[in-house]
Amino acid sequence: MTSAELPAPYGDGVAPNSAGPSGTSSGPRIPGRIRIHHLQQAKDTGTHFAMLTAYDQYAAAVFDEAGIEVLLVGDSAANNVLGHATTLPITLDEMILFSRSVSRASHRALVVADLPFGSYEVSPQQAVESSVRLLKEGLVHAVKMEGGADYADTVRAVVRAGIPVMAHVGFTPQSEHALGGYRVQGRGEASQRIVDDAVALAEAGAFCVLMEMVPAETAGAVEAAVRVPTIGIGAGPGTTGQVLVWQDMAGLRGGRQARFVKQYADLRTTLSDAARAYADDVRGGTFPGPEHTF
Question: So what EC number does this one have (predicted)?
């Protein structure tokens, strides 16, 4: 969804790109910070928004400038930055560090951070305390929490503390061992459970419901059942928003890709070619040249 397609007014403190001789706007309006009510406007008007993961200042700045509406500081940093096999090992302190980097570099996007495994399951109080840290120290605007209807009271407690919560249903990576690995959720009779989970979490105060690896039909049923916007990853085209891990989207990660991933670039090859060219120049004595020397 481009800024031209967004419901007006879209963003706080919008300003014109340029002004004519009379001082009136001569170009499109520039949206300010994306807020949760802007995502709700997208749902209400039948438009769409984009979300990408970000874990560092450079990716965050590029995506922010490109007009990505939501940046997710995902616990997927565990297996996309830190080299772990799953999302489970990442800590709250590590999430705060990544969140602070992304938040400082973005000026328009809504920044959402995952509550990592072990930081919210014990009690609603633990979830509130962890969420407060992500907002105070990580500087994010909202948190994301995995889990179904059993976490409705936890969502309610965090929202009561003044912290926006994005719910995450369907395949929940933090529960991969309980779910038997990376498997599509919500097929057949299990579809209603996904719908019930989403409804319970939305009624508890979640401002958005993210669905991962669920059939498009199930995702469509959720989109119809909840008032709040939905976001899909491997959930078909019927959700309000879509999200991808940026290294998957941009072709930085090698190996087999999930079915729901579309690669929009081949950064792995580009970066590899650049590294080889640099190494060849160094070994051949052509770098640094006179133009690179004081």
Answer: 2.1.2.11
Contact indicator for 91, 48 with CB cutoff of 8 Å: no
User: Of the listed 212, 217, 223, 291, which one is catalytic?
Assistant: 212
Burial of 48 (0-12, 13-18, 19+ CB in 10 A): middle
Instruction: Say which residue, 291 or 29, is predicted with more confidence.
Output: 291
pLDDT (average), residues 286-292:
95
Domains and CATH numbers, the chain: 36-250 (3.20.20.60)
Catalytic residue flag (residue 212): yes
Residue 12 in marked binding region: no
The tens digit of pLDDT for each residue in 9-36 reads: 344 443 333 333 344 434 334 458 999 9
Angle among Cα 30, 35, 40 to the nearest 5 degrees reads 105
Q: How confident is the model at residue 5 (pLDDT cuts 50, 70, 90)?
A: very low
Asked whether residue 146 is marked as a ligand-binding residue, the answer is yes
114 is in an annotated binding site: yes
